[in-house]
Specification:
alpha/beta; six-stranded mixed sheet; five-stranded parallel sheet; 14 helices; 19 strands; 19% strand
Length: 470
């Protein structure tokens, strides 16, 4: 095998997978890099591959870039492509919040010259199994093609939301939309239908905006067990405020106390909580590393919904839609969880329970949309190849159940606690180890980090190939 280029299999061609391949190509990696992605276009994936014109990025364009060392790369592309001229509503507070599909298009156009030059390949097929052979990995696709690889990168997307137990018996009912992350999923909802959205985060906000765009007039109810909804991104820019690393907090309560103190101090100085959250986000990975395992689990169990509601803020345009509908009464945010659910001639009969108040009420809805977000603990069963790796104990959930167990250098850890030197985890599935890894710019920086780790591993592969046989 001396002289052969080693092969890197990247499974998933959304943002993370495309970014890893792009950075390897840009660095001139001497390897055959193959990206397995069923979609025709690389770079979009679940987050940026849709075509709904209502869905916008929730981070200003100046903070979204394929190049971590060039924050304005996407913003310059927007100007040069003429996208902003065609979408004047993208500008809010002096910042651009373009449609999500435009970011996917930007990534595709940025990586396309390397793809055209053969610096990496796109195999338009889904991976159904990834198994270890005597000479590396065997990648088998749904078309029955099998390829060998020296290194593999898992760049798979989030698992879909899981149905709440109360909705399980209704699976398959036409009025129940279990996965709202599908193009035009609300397109057949009638103008006056009564809609229940289970969840009140960014996905729910997008669904409300999509319903408004198709002139839906019926009542919409968002339910959240804690009465939280995604906050909107302020039109005023707030600089990060606070140092949460000197000294680092080891316990969940200590971290929460410091964040609350930071918010009070910012407000006393005519600041805003958003500046404090920005500081926590910027320091997020180091904050997470400093926490002991028990503290991480407590945060995931008790504080994560509050963090998500403040960290993942809706674009100003989406926030304005929610505010207007809340004001005119066509949208309601209710603190509740699902109780008993049945069907009758009028639709779904749903019991909404508020456990804090010990109260419950029953309402009729024509549609139920599940917008609870990805079920991270289901990642090992979300795709056949991941299930196979789990069955062989090559993969395991991380201790916080946020994704795959991953080492600090981005490699997969098996059920036996052993790091696999040839299997890498890209994207938010490594969140359990790295903490703040759900949005840009963190995901972009992590993709570059993984590319660098893969490049270093390629050197070891080539050295082993060139080693003389005894």
């Amino acid at each position: 095998m001396s002289g052969e280029r080693p092969t890197v299999a990247v499974i998933g061609g959304g943002f993370s997978g495309s970014a890893v391949a792009f950075h390897l190509a840009r660095a001139g990696a001497l390897a055959n890099v193959i990206v397995f992605e069923p979609r025709a276009r690389l770079g979009g994936g679940l987050a940026y591959g849709g075509d709904d014109p209502i869905h916008r990025v929730n981070v200003p364009a100046t903070r979204m870039s394929l190049l971590p060392d060039d924050d304005d790369h996407f913003a310059r592309w927007l100007e040069a492509s003429g996208v902003l001229a065609q979408d004047p509503q993208a500008i809010a507070g002096g910042e651009a919040y373009p449609r999500r599909r435009e970011f996917g298009r930007y990534v595709a156009e940025t990586v396309s010259p390397y793809l055209a030059a053969g610096a990496f390949r796109h195999v338009r097929d889904a991976v159904v199994s990834l198994t270890r052979g005597v000479d590396g990995w065997r990648v088998r696709t749904s078309a029955g093609v099998t390829l060998r690889a020296d290194l593999a990168v898992i760049a798979t997307t989030h698992p879909a939301p899981s149905l709440p137990p109360q909705l399980g018996p209704l699976r398959g009912e036409p009025g129940l939309i279990a996965d709202p992350l599908v193009d035009n999923v609300v397109g057949d909802i009638g103008t006056d239908e009564r809609v229940l959205i289970v969840g009140a985060g960014l996905t729910a906000a997008d669904l409300v905006a999509a319903l408004k765009a198709q002139v839906h007039r019926g009542p919409i109810t968002l339910i959240s067990r804690r009465g939280l909804r995604a906050r909107g991104r302020s039109l005023t820019s707030y600089s990060p405020e606070g140092d949460f690393l000197d000294p680092p907090a080891r316990a969940a309560t200590a971290l929460l106390r410091r964040v609350r103190e930071g918010v009070r101090a910012a407000e006393a100085a005519d600041g805003n909580w958003q500046g404090v959250i920005e500081a926590v986000r910027n320091q997020g990975q180091d904050i997470w590393r400093a926490l002991d395992p028990q503290a991480r689990r407590r945060i995931v169990r008790h504080l994560r919904p509050f963090w998500d509601a403040h960290r993942f803020r809706a674009a100003p345009q989406i926030e304005a839609t929610l505010d207007a509908k809340l004001k005119n009464g066509t949208l309601e945010l209710k603190r509740a969880r699902l109780g008993a659910i049945s069907r009758d001639a009028a639709g779904f009969l749903v019991e909404l329970r508020d456990l804090r108040r010990g109260s419950a009420e029953t309402r009729h809805f024509d549609r139920i949309l599940v917008a609870t977000g990805p079920t991270h603990r289901d990642i090992l069963t979300s795709q056949p190849y991941l299930a196979g790796l789990a069955a062989s104990e090559t993969l395991a959930l991380d201790p916080t159940e946020l994704g795959l167990w991953t080492s600090p250098d981005g490699r997969a850890i098996g059920a036996d606690g052993v790091v696999d030197p040839t299997l890498f985890v890209a994207g938010p599935l490594a969140r359990g180890t790295f903490g703040e890894l759900m949005g840009l710019p963190q995901v972009s920086a992590y993709a570059l980090f993984i590319a660098e780790q893969v490049a270093a591993a390629l050197m070891s592969v080539r050295q082993n190939q060139d080693a003389p046989v005894a």
